[in-house]
Amino acid sequence: MDFHREPNTFVGNVKLKVANLERSLQFYQQIIGFNVLERTKTTAVLTADGKTDLVTIEQPANVEPKQGRTTGLYHFALLLPQRSDLADIVNHFVQNGIQIGSSDHLVSEALYLSDPDGNGIEIYVDRVPSEWDWNNGEVAMAVDPLDFADLLSTSKEGKGWNGLPVGTVMGHIHLHVSQLKQAEEFYTKGLGFNVVNRFGTQALFISTGNYHHHIGLNTWAGVGAPTPPVTSTGLGSFTLVFPNEESRGRVVANLKAIGSSVMEENDLFVTVDPSGNRINLQV
After folding, report:
1. The domain at 2-282 falls in which architecture?
2. pLDDT for 196-251, tens place per residue?
3. 10 Å Cβ neighbour count for 258?
């Protein structure tokens, strides 16, 4: 998990807007395996280890379903500590009749599903970084079939499923954007990420510290896709965690230099990417 601690910049919390808080809480606790860290009438903060906030779900007033083909969340991705943890959650999903997608990305093995509001979720485990194939600064990734038989052979007999393991972190976030070139400039020149994979002409993956990706960006919702209404379900914001004040300060200066606005709200710096995705800049 060294890619999700200093000196790297990585995704911390993802905030989601949902239509029904109780329905979402039931899903995120019983199906995904989170515990509730904090709770109000309209908001719940979710954790895997009892202290680190990974997902916040909020039921805004006058909330409405998200329209298709808009910018925002494609999926957020929970990274599990061990391969056996992924096998255990596969068994859990099967026992609960949950439909899932899956893929072998060469660098990782992943499961995909959606919450009751259609917010995409990936749950994955990384392969050992020494097995990743780098060529001219880009890491090889693919969308191959997942070998479930081999994966399930790692499940620890009799262990069962007890929710997300303590070492779970927010592995990455993948976003729908309006224009890929604009997004690349914002996230590289502004936020300081490096492009580590170009997936055709419609998606790219960026990271710090030679991770396979902390953020994915795509135009699969359509080039020029509009920003959804503020009252729409979907992505509220996500948090980037910087190693120190100095590194965050450099990023704030770089964002302003490329013409992006940075707001300060209660000791928190906030920016918005060119596609309307709201980002909290945290140390």
Report:
1. Roll (3.10)
2. 999 999 999 999 999 999 999 999 999 999 999 999 999 999 999 999 999 999 99
3. 12
Residues contacting 110, CB < 8 A, separation 6+: 77, 102, 103, 104, 122, 123, 124, 146
Q: How far apart are CA 183 and CA 191, in angstroms?
A: 11
CA of residue 274 relative to chain centroid, distance: 18
Assign 157 a pLDDT band (cuts: 50, 70, 90): low
The token pair at 175 is 């976003």
The SS3 of residue 151 is: helix
SS3 245: helix
Give the separation between CA 274 and CA 63, rounded to whole angstroms.
23
Dump the DSSP string for 53-110. Answer: EEEEEE--TT-BPPPSS-SEEEEEEEEPSSHHHHHHHHHHHHHTT---EEEE-SSEEE
Q: 3-state DSSP call for residue 276?
A: coil
CA distance 107 to 126: 6
Which amino acid, 43?
A: T
One-letter amino acid of 96: N
Distance CA 180, CA 182 (A): 6
Q: Which residues contact 255 (CB under 8 A, 6 or more apart)?
A: 186, 190, 191, 261, 262, 271
How distant is the alpha carbon of residue 148 from its chain centre? Answer: 23
Residue 46 phi, psi (nearest 5): -110, 145
Q: Does 158 score more than 70 pLDDT?
A: no
